[in-house]
Write a structure and sequence with these properties.
The structure is a homodimer.
Chain A (H helix, E strand, L loop, with lengths): L1 H21 L6 H14 L4 H12 L8 H16 L4 E13 L3 E7 L3 E3 L1 E3 L11 E8 L2 H6 L2 H4 L3 E4 L10 H6 L1 H12 L4 E5 L25 E4 L1 H11 L6 E6 L2 E15 L4 E11 L9 H21 L5 E8 L7 H9 L7 E4 L9 E7 L5 H11 L5 E2 L11 H6 L2 E7 L4 H4 L12 H19 L12
Parallel strand pairs in A: 5-6, 6-7, 7-8, 11-12, 11-13, 13-16, 14-15
Antiparallel strand pairs in A: 1-10, 2-3, 2-9, 4-8, 5-9, 10-12, 14-16
Helix pairs in contact in A: 2-10, 2-15, 3-10, 10-15, 12-15
Amino acid sequence: MHSSKIMWLLLLVSHFTQAHQADGSLYSDDFLKQTKALRDRALDDDLAYRITESLTTEVGARLAGSPGDAKAVAWAQEKFKELGFDRVVIEPVKLTRWTRGEETAAVIAPYPHQLAVTALGRTLPTPESGLTGELIHFNTLAELEAAEPSEVKGKITFISNRMERHQDGSGYGKAVGARSKTAQVTAAKGGIAAIIRSIGTDDNRTPHTGAAQYDEAIASVPAGAVSNPDADLLVNMLKRDQPVVLNLKLTSHWDGEYTSHNVIGDMLGTSQKEQFIVIGCHLDSWDLGTGAIDDASGCGITMAAAKLINEHIGPLKKTIRVVLWANEEYGLSGAKAYHQAQKNNLTNHILGGESDFGAGEIYALGTRVAAESMPIINQMMTLLRPLGIKYSNNQSSSGADLIPLRQAGMAVFSLRQDGTDYFDYHHTANDTLDKIDPKALAQNVAAWVVVTAMAANTEHDFGFGLKE
Amino acid sequence: MHSSKIMWLLLLVSHFTQAHQADGSLYSDDFLKQTKALRDRALDDDLAYRITESLTTEVGARLAGSPGDAKAVAWAQEKFKELGFDRVVIEPVKLTRWTRGEETAAVIAPYPHQLAVTALGRTLPTPESGLTGELIHFNTLAELEAAEPSEVKGKITFISNRMERHQDGSGYGKAVGARSKTAQVTAAKGGIAAIIRSIGTDDNRTPHTGAAQYDEAIASVPAGAVSNPDADLLVNMLKRDQPVVLNLKLTSHWDGEYTSHNVIGDMLGTSQKEQFIVIGCHLDSWDLGTGAIDDASGCGITMAAAKLINEHIGPLKKTIRVVLWANEEYGLSGAKAYHQAQKNNLTNHILGGESDFGAGEIYALGTRVAAESMPIINQMMTLLRPLGIKYSNNQSSSGADLIPLRQAGMAVFSLRQDGTDYFDYHHTANDTLDKIDPKALAQNVAAWVVVTAMAANTEHDFGFGLKE
């Protein structure tokens, strides 16, 4: 480890020097003119929308391990070829399959109601006949964590905290702990099942699924999310100070080993063919909707950006690698498999970005690059500002699928999308094509064209080995 | 019939004279001051919201003939008593019960998808195992009506027209024919089932139910509505010019005779105790949501208005009758039963209004009254304008439950609500309490207080026997 760190440092020194030399005349006038023209052309181009429509219509739901997963992998190979990618490969990704079963919830007393419920990903099943228990209500996960086991024992816990709406989606991080942790915390205190208010900003009867923490060695219970209106109903009912009794049936379960695939399309570079600008999206989706904003739109944006660059500017110095990652949703399985497969080749991964925050307009660029790369970033910003994009900062973390590469030292960027409405639909049956504004999608492509082309058409390195 | 018409004419003459005499000094200053004060008080009052919350929480879904129906009748009697109504009666309403069963729809080819579907009210069941057929697509009901039977025979019809959004809900009338008629038109042409795009303005995976025309003597087929996103998906799929094959399972069915009840609460008048200002809502709801905007809010508004008048102004000259109508949704059963029961007493029904268009702010008053009643209407308008309400016209038709009384000759009014969002939620699982803005609901109560109090506190008749 120590010797490889030294090697990285040496690499860094050489790259920093290179960047410094290039400062002032980073790109040819011709290339800058072509990039600007393509940026503007992309604003009127519908390729990303057509790709997104194709994936959501011809495949639809594609939970890792489901029949849709294999269809999506076949679709992606076909689509890369149709778009003229130079090299299309699939990479096996082993995972343990989680399968959704039936999901129903009903208040039995004091006032019978059917509730809209969905199982949290990776949770355990109730008995086939369901289970029945009295609700115990907590306003927050912290309240549940602080509760006496004697209060919780034998009961169904209910956490009712509501996610806040913000452009940058920052309400998610504050609220999502309830989803991640309630099954294990409830089990530890002797509860028999857990429900939470959906981690979402909408008022639709479309509950939000999403992964819960799971570890075979740690006790857990069946856990589901009810929709926001159903959570409101329960809260109102609980105010009446009578026991609220729920029947819950969630037959989702772990279901054996499965091999999915990352699908990788390369537009090969010229002078640095084996140096990669890694962009992409995740190919899997939750199973309730057609995975349009999570994450078909990200696939449409990044596949279209690479295709448009190749078609209108031509091959650049470095290779543009578009990775459609497998099983982001309940395991980051594709990201881990890729990192493992590339472990002797990590330093060839020059700069990475993932589009995985819906289809809203991009309002900011964030980076995590060497200080010496800032002249290039500044040059990118010159072309991004006319799209309404400002520079954020150099502490970006990019998408979830890039975590292993970033932790290994790869430089990353993040084109930050307006997420004001993202959590209205995220992980619900409502994640469908109609939620995407084609104009906003095109603006995304224009921005990805700029960053990707400029990152690929330089021999500069963006600083491998940056500390977290 | 002829002699009773003459009697009505004589009555009209006497009432017109009365109105003319009262002109210029229609109400005492004290009463006007009290009404104004109560109007303003109502804007800060939450009684209507509390009633609406109570019905949607303690009863919830209450489709005519379902367990919720009987619970709602019991709830209503109790609530009227709690609010201090002078006379509470229930009136039997016989109906043939329609019951929703399972409902699933799936595209089998070319691209498998699960669809969000709901049965249209009063339609026939598919076999228990479902039925499978190729889709035939029509953009409008008119296109289906014009189709050759040979095109439709053996197929599942699909009408994809989309409802327009307007403040006054006028898009509904233009679009709803597809829902009303497709089952019978499809059957007449040899189709095996029918699906339509939901009659709704939203983009949620919450399909809109609602009644279809039904007559035992006319052939029909199972019929359902898919959500707007699902309809979009089908339209996109159909563009690919491959047969689209659907499996449809809708086990809803007619289910024998049932006796529901209108629930009637009277705040008794003084000098004209047996003359009625008839206000109200319908007590039943569709079964997918909790019937909050359709029509618990109407019950909250009108029950609260009568209660506030009685509490803060006291008994008025005429009786304020609040009718919670049974089975509006698939039969107008309560409206017909009341009309039948009151057939010798119709002329005592002086003026009627129903609140059945959600919970949006009121923006206009419409009427259907004798020309001689306009001074009173003008006086009402003086108190309504500060609420942002304008006068519409004298061709109002009021709510569906008043059709039999209006056709018999009763004068009516309509306090028109902003329906811009109404058809996002109407007849869906999304019709829940969170869709109601308490401030808008209070504005409704303020307006109903003004019209109801001023109509009840005069010996004027509003012109029974007006021609349609």
